[in-house]
User: Fold these one by one.
Assistant:
Number 1:
Amino acid sequence: MIRRIISYLIFLLIILYLFFMYNDAVLSGILVLALLTPVFSAAYLVRARGRLSPDLDRIPAMGECDKRIRAAVMLENRSRFQSLHYMSRISVKNQFAKKKARSDLRGVIPPRKKEVCWCEFESSMCGNVEIELESVKIFDPFGFFYIKIQCHMSSVIKVMPEFSPMPFEVTRRTREFQAEAEEYSGERRGDDPNEPYQIREYRMQDPLRDIHWKLSAREDDLMVRERGFPLGCVVLIRIDLPEGEQSAEGFSRLLGTAASLSVTLAEQKCIHMAAWYEEKNERIVKMSIRDEESAYEFIWRLMEIVPYKDKEKAEVCFEEAFKGQEFSSVVTIDGKGVLRKNGEIPEILRV
């Protein structure tokens, strides 16, 4: 604004100089108009302020890392007669980044019209990205003065990581590990006596405890009940995000590692569980992941994670949440995106 006031004063001085140098009625009229410009501008801007209506209705809910994202801000001129010369300031910021990227968009909105201000950007880091309409400046017809409208309207775009398979090995222990579950496999037999897999004729190597005596009496032949294989979570992915370790780069790597691991386990038909500590409610958030769709849902929810402060409380909650529950492998991903199994960083992950 200071520069514009200086520009106006320079313009006024030029008119005064010309007025005293040349005795002309036209210059007299221009001088009067120049002196009244601040008054006209103030009245124009006060009226224009109430005629502008901003809206964030064209912000996409999701984007992809390292790909172009288009977001739009809608500005409506509700005035019947006057056009609005504007400059909107839009900022983009990752949830864990310290700085915002800002851009200024200029234009003119005719009376009773709407203007779409498109903002295009790429995010090299995934996670929640906040796009905010910080302010809109409306200029007077002379271009000397403006009024600034603070908007502070924002919306969040979830920038998803790339879901790509990662090199790892599923061990026999994990393949044959039976975790408790309410659902059983229709393709594999196991050792759970609570759920039968199938009924078949008796073989010499079958244990006597598996003989179905009632059915054997009815069929007049020995019949065996094969036990079911429970489809429980055999691998635990623990997300560990304490306060102080979070950064935009680290959280982006965390999401990328978690996404790659989860989708790879899903492709290998390895049912797994993801868990993290929610300090606000003092609870452990658990998610069972069976396929690629639930892996996407896991990453979507993980973007809302909030770093915790009390590490001791987090450990207690984890112990209580999984007391008596066993997994074939426990994999931890920290706030820097580093993957560990049993406290060590593996060259090739074996679960």
Number 2:
Amino acid sequence: MKRYLLSLLFTAGLIFGLRAEEYLQLVSLEATSGDKAVFISMGQASKKADVEANAVKSVFYTMFYQGVPGVAEGQPLITNENKLYTNSYFNSTGRYKFYVAEVTEEGKVQKESGQYRGQYRVTVWIDRLLRGLETNKVYVSARQRAEADAPVLKPTIMVVPYKRDGESYAAILQNDFDRRVAVGKVQDGFNQRDITTIDLQGKLDAVKRRAAYEENSGAADSNDKQLLLTSGANVYVTVDINKDINPTLGSRVSLIMKAYETSTGRVLASKDATPYNRFNTTATDALCAYAVNDNLSAFLDDICRALQQTAGVVIQFAIDGASSTTFNDRFGPNNYALRDILRQWVRKNAFKSQFHLQGITDEAMIFDNVKIPPVDADGLPMDAAQFTFLLESYLKEQQGVDCTTRVDGDNILVTIM
């Protein structure tokens, strides 16, 4: 029984026996460099041999429960306390040691009022620590809070007619009145719901003026695909029409709508928009409006819901034709292969690490679906252009990789020089 009580007391000491008075919490951030943070910390102990360890633990204790200016906006890191986990940093488990890169003494340890005191410079793997705290759900980062509070981002949509074999968008808009009307009514419906749309006819006129679009059946598919990719629309919606004209029962028009993610071609939503009622008219525009009014709201909800789950960009890395660089060449302070540097950056920066690597060849490395975060580290909306800027800055400034970038809609093209 006595042994059992001693064992129980020992276990309780491991879990609850944190003595905060040992940690002076005289901690300041001196500098940050890459994924490291350097702190100045004062340590105190009744035994000289324990001063350094207490100074290091004081860094973690202060960050956890008091906050250090310069780290996580100066707020305490522990937002969801779990004593079994957090106390393991300070008891005999010594979890803090996994995150300490270096400790150096700043002057001699001195004895004052029966206690030994000393000042130390403590270098911590800060990014690794924050990820560990996040994983164990005791810390909620500013990025996580911003993502949770971020409003649902509305997509930019281009409405296009459904194409049959050999057709082009330009020819349909010119020659098919019914499908032209259907496209216009669906686009009007999105506009009335404050959704930004890109007008297909306006886009066609613009690319024709730049001589970038040819109206011939042989080039129709490739030209229309390029038009979509460079449109700036996150989503394109195809619209087909089926007229049901009955002089006795009345008339109605069905719209067959399908939404695609522009960058990846993923189907986001589909809808057979058929009005329940029939109407005493054969006017195509009025019948299309009835179908839009009855069905577009639910269709848009489906698109937004799917985008939250699957929205992504395509990132294509290519080696410049005049360059001797390969994806096996080594760069950066850690001398990692370029292919590993690129994959690790995407893995770390994709939203919840959601990405798919399509493949690697001698000339290209393609991620065909990378989900970007809805907001950046500052809580501001993230888009493909900002995501590209962060990638280019990282490669040039931290890894010494010379490159150029280009953004076409949701396609990011990176050329390694």
